[in-house]
């Protein structure tokens, strides 16, 4: 059963931090709902990883590493950082690589209240046109370098360079 | 596997450590890193005989201050990056690299200018800093083990820098190799040889961090 709240109440979080077991359970329910939505969206096409298993694994880690949460900072980015770590671990166990959009999506925690955790779309929009187009074609639409090069009227080497530069810029924006 | 609701009920009634306990433990690990460095260097090698005199020398103080500042900043930053949602900003990374590059350049130039006076004994510092540096390295690894660093590369580099600076700071109180070098560049030149131990710490941190701090 999930706690029917969209936003985590600061008083509930404060009570959980203060040691209130009921409040802590409510925070975990809220986190489970958030994690479930996130993992279901990211893992629908990835074989071998059950989103619910990953939710439980992340909750166990949240419990084990609860002391590393700094109450002065927003909770959702911390939760999503733990989730991202567990997701990468799970994908590595399956010898899969984390797709850029998944990594950015998890790291971005788009419903997070923190203004320094932006959504993917504005991040992409902030890139120069050439880099944005190259990343959209190669990484999001999974076109080959040759196809992207043809569409962008550039050489394959130039497309690779644009993707590399764009990805570097995106990583810097997500983890400044 | 239990259902998620059952798991949550179990977790809610299980003990968990608080942020305050965690901060206290981290403080303890940092104190242990510094304490063990001082104990090993000064207890086994002993303080330099003229320590009471050289503490008044500006070039010696500059060396101590620089190493103390590096130790303080790297320890503070190591604590900061030990949470899942923290990483060093590019400005901090650039500033850190700039300080290290300037230190390497300045001390390297001094060592080059004094090359005719340098004896092979000065290289002993690499051995002792590396050997006794295992104590702060392990203490700080334990600090990371109890935490959850989100940016592993940053954690690894800071682990190496903090361990090296703790060990070097303690070794500086023992080392009198600068006496054989002309003042005032002797102390600056010695800093270059201390820096030669840093790659050892980087290599050890790269090997040990993934083994001991997975979470």
Architecture blueprint of SSEs:
The complex is a heterodimer of chains A (176) and B (215).
Chain A: H1 10-17, H2 21-43, H3 51-64, H4 75-93, H5 100-108, H6 120-125, H7 129-140, H8 145-152, H9 156-174
Helix pairs in contact in A: 1-2, 2-3, 3-4, 4-5, 7-8, 7-9, 8-9
Chain B: H1 4-12, H2 19-45, H3 51-54, H4 58-80, H5 90-113, H6 124-132, H7 134-145, H8 152-172, H9 186-195, H10 198-212
Helix pairs in contact in B: 2-7, 2-8, 4-8, 5-9, 6-8, 7-8, 7-10, 8-10
Radius of gyration of CA atoms of chain B, rounded to a whole number: 20 Å
Q: Please, what is the average pLDDT of chain A?
A: 77
Silhouette of chain B: elongated
Proportion in helices of chain A: 55-70%
Low-confidence stretches of chain B: none
Radius of gyration of chain A: 18 Å
Which shape of chain A, going by the Cα principal axes? elongated
Largest sheet of chain B: none
End-to-end distance of chain A, in Å? 37 Å
Flag low-confidence runs of chain A: 1-5, 106-118
Main beta-sheet annotation of chain A: none
Structural class assignment of chain A: mainly alpha
Q: How many strands appear in the DSSP assignment of chain B?
A: 0
Number of strands of chain A: 0
Distinct helical segment count of chain A = 9
